[in-house]
Amino acid sequence: MTVKPIHLQICGLVSQRWSWKPRTVSSLSSFSPIPYPNPYSKLLPTNTVARRVRFAPFHASSSPLPSAGIVRNIKFCQWCGGSTKHDIPEGEERLRAICTVCGKIAYQNPKMVVGCLIEHDNKVLLCKRSIQPSHGLWTLPAGYLEIGESAVEGAIRETREEANADVEVISPFAQLDIPLIGQSYMIFLAKLKKHHFSPGPESSACQLFST
Amino acid sequence: MTVKPIHLQICGLVSQRWSWKPRTVSSLSSFSPIPYPNPYSKLLPTNTVARRVRFAPFHASSSPLPSAGIVRNIKFCQWCGGSTKHDIPEGEERLRAICTVCGKIAYQNPKMVVGCLIEHDNKVLLCKRSIQPSHGLWTLPAGYLEIGESAVEGAIRETREEANADVEVISPFAQLDIPLIGQSYMIFLAKLKKHHFSPGPESSACQLFST
Questions:
Q1: Domain B71-106, second-level architecture
Q2: Which Gene3D superfamilies match (chains A, B) (predicted)?
Q3: Quick check: do B13-65+109-210 and B71-106 share a fold?
């Protein structure tokens, strides 16, 4: 049985996508390069869950607002409190916030969002958002990776937080990017360890949808 | 022809690894889950390049020192300059630096490192580091993803910067994590667009090594 790839709807661009065939031993990934840029709307086939539910853009639960990291908003050094200047450091090409007192550079880099596509009885588990952004829309359980955890650990944690579901990660599923807001996504295919799920604090409902 | 997976040596843990078979149409990835945690030393077979050269840990070129994001080092708010307190915000579970003046939270998340495993005539392209960290060791071209670019774009840029090589990304190759220092890696398999490479500012040599 091959899981039909779910075309992921996001507020941005899909960079890399895998599909997946279980129990294929020892080798591996094919690769569906999607021309870049590629608005998600072109990716939606007629038979995906995206046509049946209002699908949320991916979100990142540990911060209420995504940030593209606007350098000029960094006005003070977080280490010494000195005021910053905004300049391109020697040997670099990008504008950075540089402390005028201690000289440290406040690097801003994309945040990594990790999540799970949970497949169960030919259905996938989605969560309905109970908070902003995207209140009332359906989404995969996903959120910001935290320091101290691996991407898989982060995806499992987010699933536990948002769907009270204990999952086992099976394979990578998709790597996505939303460059405009400085987010990079790693989505894993996963399965329920036991048939239990319920809405976490950020969800109003969790439901299996046919693929 | 199947590219033999190169076992990546890093100062940390390997979470997900793919191998790759070119020209396999329309489906997909298998998956080699590696028990976690798994010291890299156990992953090294006898015939990898890692046995022939001193292999650098992955590095991230846009910042001289990796940071695990020590919350208590954040003493001032970068937006208003107020002093911070270190506490667990309501509804969260992790210690954060919270501004005592404006209340903003300085979230620290892992940085994403992107790079290329460049395969050419059954060899792979490595760069010898000319700067710290890991001066004199060999590494894949890789570095921090920047805001405004996709993971693939970042990997291509790092390859251009460190090896003066113009590459085309073929497939994802590996997703790695070094939780201890807050880094998450996405490595892409790539090929040279033309047979040209030379050391960039951070490399003293670039060379093809047999796999």
A1: Single Sheet (2.20)
A2: 2.20.70.10, Nucleoside Triphosphate Pyrophosphohydrolase (3.90.79.10)
A3: no
Cα dihedral sign for B179, A141, B18, B186? negative
State pLDDT tens for residues A4-15.
333 333 333 344
Q: Do residue A25 and residue B29 have CB atoms under 8 angstroms apart? A: no
Contact: B172, A31; criterion CB under 8 Å: yes
CA distance B53 to chain A (A): 27
Query: What does the pLDDT average to over B152-156?
Result: 97
- Nearest Cα residue in chain A from B98: A78
Domain ranges for chain A, please list them.
13-65+109-210, 71-106
CATH number 3.90.79.10 is the correct assignment for the domain at B13-65+109-210:
yes
Q: Which amino acid is at B169?
A: V
Residues of chain A in contact with residue B36, where contact means CB-CB under 8 angstroms, are 150, 152-153
Instruction: State residue B58's pLDDT score.
Output: 55
Contact B78 A80 (CB under 8 A): no
CA distance B40 to B9: 6
Distance from CA of A113 to the nearest CA of B (A): 10
Q: What is the CA radius of gyration of chain A?
A: 19
